[in-house]
Each structure stands twice: as structure tokens, then as C-alpha cells.
Specification:
about 425 residues; about 20% strand; alpha/beta
């Protein structure tokens, strides 16, 4: 299993960094003016690596015409700074889920009901947008559990919202029920337990079972599930996800595979999760591409963010474009087990990327670069001539603390963390 390697994965380092930053801001605040540009520039260590001076002296050597593949938790295509390059091109060329956590089986084909609706797999009746064009009349349907789409924090917020909505609705129903006379139930409750008839005991048992079911309803079953519909409009595949789970697809975003035009949607405000889509296997497989965390967006921004209004917030190579390949599996907390890495290598070759950044790593048995993770990325370098940069891990300094593959594999540039004064 591989996990993310990052300076901020270690609380002591993160606290130390934030403490230093706050101390610096306090010191600056004691002066008559605050050098905001210097503070913003220090968010990314461009000065320390000489990137700011290099770009100032060579303004066109800013990464333009270069594609950086980020193998990570996924990159959020809605993130500020990741919209356009310095030459006006779309920054994120495509988003791919190599982990499989976003896969949806859409092999089941249905047609419209007599009233024009579709029968969703969740049991909801789905109303299609009026703008739908489908020459064949065939729609592919699927469903996707929320637990496989969102990282734990976002999922917790969504569950809390749904539970709150259910409790409010239940309170209203109970209020209405209290206003309805139920003399038999009240009489049964007032009767001593030993004196109740069989009918009275049954009535009380049914009421208690009902209350128990109501109390656990919000957390019961497989959890929140989203209906998905796929069809071909004669030119491109189209996808709509019932992101608010109300059955009305007219208030949801119609998407094509992200690489066509950079289209994406957003789930409900509780998660605020961005998603794009991909279609595979002739329409039988839909991939809903979300992120397993913020780390991938963080890496992409350091590498290539571009703020047209404020160059101090640019990344090291603001002219470069990004290919996002999510190898962190949402279903297991963003860890990776090899499948995502193999798919990522195939995508890097397909899109002709120039270099990759991989912030994942872990321990190996022999520490000689012979494990599957090392050989996978080493083959990418040898076969496709792609410069591969990987983290060497968060541990150490000591013997055997460098992780695979960044600290062990040949032909890979391994990078260790350094906290400057």
C-alpha cells in the first residue's frame, strides 16, 4: 500500500511551519507597512529554487508547451489558479480516475416511459432535461454510493445535512400524528403491562418498532446513492448525475467527458465536491471523477498555478498544463494499491506528458528497487522517456527510511523534504 508523502502529513512539522509563518507575520505587522507581495511569494519557495529570477529573465520559459502529469488524489478543475495558462490555454487538459473508485456500471439500457421519464436504479422516477438529444432513444442507467465518491470530511458533512433534513421532516410528521386521535394506543399505554390484551401489546410493539425505524432511517441501508444516466447524442457521450437526489435531472449539469471541453459539475453545497466524467467500454462504464483529498490540487498549484491578476501567486511553471490522474482510492482513505499507478502510466503515455510528479510512497521488503511500484515507474521512464519525480518519504534521517519508489528505483528523481529557515 502506498500513501501520500507530504511535509504536512507530519503534525509536528506542520505546526512548526505555521508557527514560523505566524511569527513572521507578527514581526512584519510591527513595522509601518506589510510587504504583502513578499508574503504571497513566500507561500511557494520560488525564491529559494531561483524560479522567480529565472522566469523574470526568461519570461517565455515558464513551462509553456509542457504537460505535467500529477499522480495523486486528483486535481480539482474548479480551483482558482488552475483555469488557464500564461498563453490562455485550458490549464487542466484532462482528469482521470485511475483508482476505480468512481466507476459506475452503466451496461443496463432502458428507454423512456410513456410519460417521457426514466426509471432510475435507486427507485426514483427521473425527469430528463428538455434539451436532451438522443437519436437512438436508448439510455444507460447506473447508480453510485456517496461513500465511494467523497473523502471522509465531505461525506460527514453530507450525512449530517441529510440527517438534519430527515429529523425536521420526522418532527413534522410526528406533530401531525399527535393531532390525530389514537384512543386505542393511548388506552394500551395507560393499561398496566400485565393487564394488557394481546391486541394492546401488539399495538405498542408496532409503535415502538416504528419509532426505532424512524430513528435509524437516515443511517440505514447502503447510504446515499446517486442515479446516473448516460446516452450518446450522435456526436458525444452525455452524462447527467442526479447530484441533489431529487429525481429532476433538469436542475443538474449535462456533461461530456472532461477532455472534450473541460466541463465539470458540483455536488450539493454540503460537500462542495467538483466532479467530471469519463466514458469507457462503449458506454458500459461511467467514471465519475472526484478527488480523494486536496493534496493533488496542492501539488498542481505549486507546479503550475497561474493567477492572471497576481504573479506572486503563480506556481513554479505557470505556463505548463496539467494532466490529473487520481491514484488515491477514495474508498480506502486515499491510499493506493497499484492499480491506479499502472493505469496512470498508460495515461501518461497516451497524453504524451513531459514529466510526472508522484507524491506517493511506502516501504518495501528489500529496498533495492525491485518491488512492483519501482519497476512500474522505472518502465515508464525507459519506455516513454518521461521524467519522473517522486517523493522519497517523510521519515528519517536514518538508514532505510527512504521509501519506494522515490528513494529506491533507478531512473527516478527522488526528492526529500527540506524546511528552510
Amino acid at each position: 500500500m502506498l500513501k501520500i508523502n507530504s511535509l504536512f502529513d507530519r503534525p509536528s512539522r506542520a505546526i512548526g511551519f505555521m508557527g514560523s509563518l505566524l511569527f513572521s507575520l507578527t514581526a512584519v505587522g510591527q513595522e509601518s507597512t506589510v510587504d504583502l507581495a513578499a508574503i504571497q511569494s513566500a507561500l511557494i519557495p520560488k525564491r529559494e529554487v531561483g524560479a522567480d529570477v529565472f522566469i523574470a529573465e526568461n519570461p517565455t520559459y515558464d513551462g509553456r508547451d509542457v504537460i505535467i502529469a500529477v499522480f495523486d488524489t486528483g486535481v480539482d478543475p474548479a480551483a482558482p489558479g488552475l483555469q488557464v495558462t500564461t498563453t490562455g490555454e485550458r490549464k487542466v487538459i484532462d482528469i482521470i480516475d485511475g483508482s476505480g473508485s468512481g466507476d459506475v456500471n452503466t451496461a443496463q439500457i432502458v428507454e423512456r416511459n410513456e410519460d417521457g421519464t426514466l426509471s432510475g436504479l435507486t427507485g426514483l422516477t427521473l425527469t430528463l432535461p428538455e434539451s436532451v438529444e438522443n437519436p437512438t432513444g436508448e439510455f444507460r442507467v447506473g447508480m453510485k454510493p456517496a461513500v465511494e465518491l467523497f473523502p471522509s470530511d465531505a461525506l460527514a458533512r453530507l450525512k449530517a445535512q441529510v440527517k438534519s433534513e430527515w429529523e425536521a421532516e420526522l418532527a413534522m410528521l410526528n406533530h401531525r400524528a399527535e393531532r390525530t386521535d389514537n384512543a386505542d394506543l393511548e388506552a394500551a399505554k395507560e393499561t398496566a403491562a400485565d393487564d394488557r390484551t394481546l391486541e394492546q401489546r401488539d399495538l405498542i410493539a408496532l409503535q415502538e418498532a416504528k419509532e426505532a425505524l424512524e430513528a435509524g432511517y437516515a443511517d440505514a441501508g447502503p447510504g446515499l446513492v446517486y442515479d446516473c444516466v448516460v446516452w450518446h447524442d450522435g456526436t458525444d457521450w452525455r452524462v447527467v448525475v442526479d447530484a441533489n437526489r431529487n429525481g429532476d435531472l433538469g436542475d443538474d449539469v449535462l456533461l461530456r467527458p472532461y477532455g472534450i471541453a473541460g466541463e465539470y459539475g458540483t455536488f450539493d453545497p454540503s460537500t462542495n465536491a467538483t466532479y467530471g466524467v469519463q466514458i469507457y467500454e462503449g458506454g458500459d462504464l461511467l467514471s465519475i471523477v472526484t478527488t480523494a483529498g486536496s493534496h493533488g490540487t496542492h501539488v498542481a498549484s505549486i507546479s503550475a498555478a497561474h493567477d492572471p491578476e497576481n504573479a506572486n501567486r503563480n506556481g513554479v511553471a505557470p505556463g505548463a498544463r496539467i494532466l490529473s490522474v487520481k491514484i488515491g482510492d477514495t474508498r480506502v482513505g486515499g491510499s493506493s494499491y497499484g492499480t491506479g499507478e499502472r493505469r496512470a502510466v498508460a495515461m501518461a503515455a497516451k497524453y504524451g506528458v513531459d514529466l510526472t510528479n508522484i507524491s506517493y510512497g511506502g516501504s518495501s521488503t528489500y529496498q533495492d528497487g525491485s518491488d512492483q511500484f519501482s519497476t512500474n515507474f522505472e518502465n515508464m521512464v525507459r519506455r516513454y522517456d518521461i521524467l519522473t519525480i517522486m517523493s522519497a518519504g517523510n521519515e528519517g534521517p536514518a538508514l532505510s527510511t527512504a521509501g519506494t519508489a522515490g528513494g529506491e528505483a533507478d531512473f527516478i528523481l527522488g526528492v526529500g523534504a527540506h524546511s528552510s529557515a
